[in-house]
């Protein structure tokens, strides 16, 4: 599932391409919305909230989309060939200069803009909220503290606590904290620091398609432990271990260094080095990428 910075970047690109422009074509190919035609409406803005996107129109409605595992928005010039097959398109928003195509958007809803809160009101503070302030910090801390007995790695993924983190960031955040993802929240010594680190990592990547937690964008150097099973830790050289964390469909592949990270951990399991469930959500070939 995409990280929050992926969704933010998609919204930023859609905002630049569509906001203030009238739709010459506004097709919704989702079974529940196929009867709606948005042509003639003007896009008034595109905003992201955590991992949710809202495209707003001048008739007082918003189109809500969520990428889930394989969804994405692409941007094209009129007449250009799409980079995904047409039958995966769930929304086509075309202006005189741009065509925005939403592919594999399983969650797509049209609702009054004033009702957007019904879909995102349950979320914790959006880590990429441009208006983030002390109140957001306090609310995120309150929600984390309320989950004192829960493992840190799962709480970081819980959008009801803080909106925006995915599997990539939660693994590397735990590494940077020096704690295994199985450490209970009550045993984390600096929860405000966890919130601040989460915001800083997301913010540092929000304006580009590449994601790094190490500060390097070189191939193979972008992450501390994420998707590096069996490889040497960048700090101490110990082999990175991996196991699932969470139950059933919510389980995520988890990576940690048994030397650099203290706390409880399960017995390691052997895995291949290829991408697995819970890989970062930069949907190929890129969310809302302009060609």
Automatic annotation (TrEMBL):
Residues 224-262 form the FPG-type domain. Coiled coil: none annotated. Its cofactor is Zn(2+). Residues 2-102 form the Formamidopyrimidine-DNA glycosylase catalytic domain. Residues 281-291 have a biased composition (Pro residues). Keywords: DNA damage, DNA repair, DNA-binding, Glycosidase, Hydrolase, Lyase, Metal-binding, Multifunctional enzyme, Zinc, Zinc-finger. PROSITE patterns: FPG_CAT (PS51068), ZF_FPG_1 (PS01242), ZF_FPG_2 (PS51066). It holds the Pfam family zf-FPG_IleRS. It catalyses: 2'-deoxyribonucleotide-(2'-deoxyribose 5'-phosphate)-2'-deoxyribonucleotide-DNA = a 3'-end 2'-deoxyribonucleotide-(2,3-dehydro-2,3-deoxyribose 5'-phosphate)-DNA + a 5'-end 5'-phospho-2'-deoxyribonucleoside-DNA + H(+). Signal peptide: none annotated. InterPro entries: DNA_glyclase_Znf_dom_DNA_BS, FPG_cat, FPG_N, H2TH_FPG, Nei2_N, Ribosomal_uS13-like_H2TH, Znf_DNA_glyclase/AP_lyase, Znf_FPG/IleRS. It comes from Pseudonocardia tropica. This is DNA-(apurinic or apyrimidinic site) lyase. Its EC number is 4.2.99.18. Belongs to the FPG family. Residues 258-291 are annotated as: Disordered.
């Amino acid at each position: 599932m995409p990280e929050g910075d992926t969704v933010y970047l998609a919204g930023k690109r859609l905002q630049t391409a569509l906001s203030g422009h009238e739709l010459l074509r506004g097709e919704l190919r989702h079974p529940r919305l196929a009867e709606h035609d948005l042509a003639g409406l003007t896009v008034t803005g595109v905003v992201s909230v955590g991992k949710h996107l809202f495209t707003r129109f001048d008739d007082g409605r918003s189109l809500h989309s969520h990428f889930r595992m394989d969804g994405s928005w692409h941007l094209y010039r009129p007449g250009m060939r799409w980079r995904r097959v047409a039958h995966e398109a769930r929304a086509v928003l075309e202006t005189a200069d741009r065509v925005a195509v939403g592919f594999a958007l399983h969650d797509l809803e049209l609702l009054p803009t004033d009702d957007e809160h019904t879909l995102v009101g349950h979320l914790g503070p959006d880590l990429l909220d441009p208006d983030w302030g002390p109140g957001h910090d306090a609310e995120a801390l309150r929600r984390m503290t309320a989950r004192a007995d829960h493992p840190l790695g799962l709480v970081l993924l819980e959008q009801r606590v803080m909106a925006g983190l995915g599997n990539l960031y939660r693994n590397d955040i735990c590494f940077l904290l020096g704690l295994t993802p199985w450490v209970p929240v009550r045993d984390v010594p600096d929860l405000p620091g966890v919130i601040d680190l989460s915001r800083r990592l997301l913010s540092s990547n929000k304006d580009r398609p590449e994601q790094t937690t190490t500060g390097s964008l070189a191939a193979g150097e972008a992450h501390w432990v994420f998707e590096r099973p069996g490889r040497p830790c960048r700090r101490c050289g110990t082999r990175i271990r991996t196991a699932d964390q969470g139950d059933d469909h919510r389980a995520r592949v988890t990576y940690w260094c048994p030397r650099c990270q203290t706390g409880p951990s399960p017995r390691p399991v052997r895995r291949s080095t290829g991408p697995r469930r819970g890989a970062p959500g930069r949907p190929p070939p890129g969310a809302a990428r302009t060609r």
